[in-house]
Amino acid sequence: MPMSQPSAKLYRGRVADQIVEDLRRQILNGELPDGARLPSERELAAHYDVSAPTIREAVRVLAAMGLLAPETAAGPPSPRGATRCSRCPIASVVQFEKMTAADVFGLLGALNAYAVEQAVERASDEDIAKLRVAAERAGDMTDVELGSPRS
Fold first, then answer.
1. Region 118-124: what's the mean pLDDT?
2. What is the pTM for the complete model shown?
3. 31: burial class by Cβ within 10 Å (0-12, 13-18, 19+)?
4. Dihedral sign for Cα atoms in the order 138, 139, 145, 150
C-alpha cells in the first residue's frame, strides 16, 4: 500500500514521536483507511529513514492510542505482529492538542453514563436482578484486589 510523503522533513529529536504524529494524521484523515494493513516494519523504516526499533516504538504508541489493532486475518502470523488501522471514535479524541487528562476522563465519564442509560433501557428483569446481586457482592468486599469479604 503506498503511503503519502511525511508532512515535513523529520528532525532527529524524538523521531518516533514525529512518526506517531504523521501516521496518526494519515489514519485519522483516511489516507491510511480504517482496516487497511499498515506497511511492514521494514517498509516503514525505509520510508522514514529510521531504525526498526524506532518504528516499533511508534507502532506501540499508536496501538496504545487505539489507532492500530492487531492483525486478525487468517494465515501465518507476521514476525512483528502486523496491524490494521483503526479509526475508532475514542482514538480520534487524541487529535485535540490541548486536552488534559481531566478532559479525557470527563469525556469517558460522559460516555460511560450514556452507556449505562442505554443498558438500563434495554435490560430485562433478569439482567437487572443479576446486576443487583453483583452490586451487593461488590458492596460486601473490603479488599477488591484480594476479594476477601467483610466480617
1. 84
2. 0.49
3. middle
4. negative
Question: Going by C-beta distance under 8 Å and a sequence separation of 6 or more, which residues neighbour residue 81?
Answer: 70, 71
Q: Quick one: cell of 57?
A: 516504538
Q: Are 140 and 132 in contact (CB under 8 A)?
A: no
Does residue 98 register a pLDDT over 70? no
45 neighbors 98 (Cβ within 8 angstroms): no
> If we measure between CA atoms, which residue out of 39, 35, 44 comes closest to residue 15?
44
The one-letter amino acid code at 48 reads: Y
Q: In this structure, what C-alpha cell is assigned to residue 101?
A: 487528562
Contact 29, 13 (CB under 8 A): no
3-state secondary structure of 70: strand
Nearest to 65 by CA among 88, 81, 48: 88
Cell of 13: 529529536
Beta bridge partners of 85: 68
Task: Write down the residue that cell numbers 496504545 correspond to.
Answer: 64
